[in-house]
Amino acid sequence: MIKFFRKIRQKMLTENKFSKYFLYAIGEIILVVIGILIALQVNNQNQVKNEKQALINYLDKIAKNVESDLKVSELMIKTRTEQSQLCANATELISNKKWNDQKTITSAVFVMIIEQPLNYNRSGFESLKNSGYLQHLDNPKVEELIYNYYNAVDKVIFEETSLQVWANDLDLELHKSGFFSEWIELEKRPNQKLNEVVGNYTDELCEHKGNNIVLSLLYRGFLFTADLTSFYKEQVTFGNELLLAIENYDKK
């Protein structure tokens, strides 16, 4: 193509057709400029397309993380609801000195002092933030839901951590007071499972100063674990809204 245009220019010069040559040269320059602009436009379109696909990939990863998170939270809603009722039942048994259901008392105390691990996955969100593609997200609603969801996750983690720190402090007080050494016969039977060495809760234990700590632990367990479910439910709500928004964004 270049040789073809060169031959035309040379022919015009040899025939002294300078005016035609000048117009032809301008036309050729215009064609080159148009070609460059078209190439740039195609390149920009490809770049935008690649950025959109990369963004969709990040959002899909977030969606997978959220789906996994919601399974954890839905299980925790069920677990915390059951634990709240368990603590309420144990509180009533101890307060009224009813010792016919020792399993409920033991289970309630230990579910409060044993840590509940939360395995939330933020890898997709962190990858999106670090990639710089978040600025290319042209849907403010999706971005808002992403931050709403992870703010809700942070609230859940904060509330769970606060409960665990408080329960751990009371657990330490129970050990310091000597309550556990009377209730749990670990020193007498060190090689047995925990559920086999826990003694019965009795009238004598009710007179121990650690009994008030146990009641405080159970009462807080009844109220606070029930309250925790509202934070989980908020997270689940935002999570489902985010999943729907990402699905609709992928279809654009």
Low-confidence stretches: none
Task: Find the structural class using helix and strand composition.
Answer: mainly alpha
What is the number of helices? Answer: 9
What is the number of beta strands?
A: 0
Write down the Rg.
35 Å
Distance between the termini: 41 Å
Largest sheet, in brief, is:
none
Tell me the number of structural domains: 1
Mean pLDDT: 83
Secondary-structure element order, as H and E? HHHHHHHHH
- Share of helix, binned: over 70%
Strand content: under 5%
Shape verdict: rod-shaped
Ordered list of secondary-structure elements with their pairings:
Elements: H1 2-14, H2 18-95, H3 102-113, H4 123-131, H5 140-176, H6 179-183, H7 194-197, H8 203-206, H9 210-250
Main features:
single chain, 252 residues, mainly alpha, transmembrane helix
Question: Would you mind describing this structure in some detail?
Answer:
The protein is mainly α. The chain has one domain. The chain has nine helices and no strands. Helix 2 packs antiparallel against helix 3 and helix 2 packs antiparallel against helix 4. The radius of gyration is 35 Å and the shape is rod-shaped. It starts with a helix and ends with a helix. Keywords: Membrane, Transmembrane, Transmembrane helix.
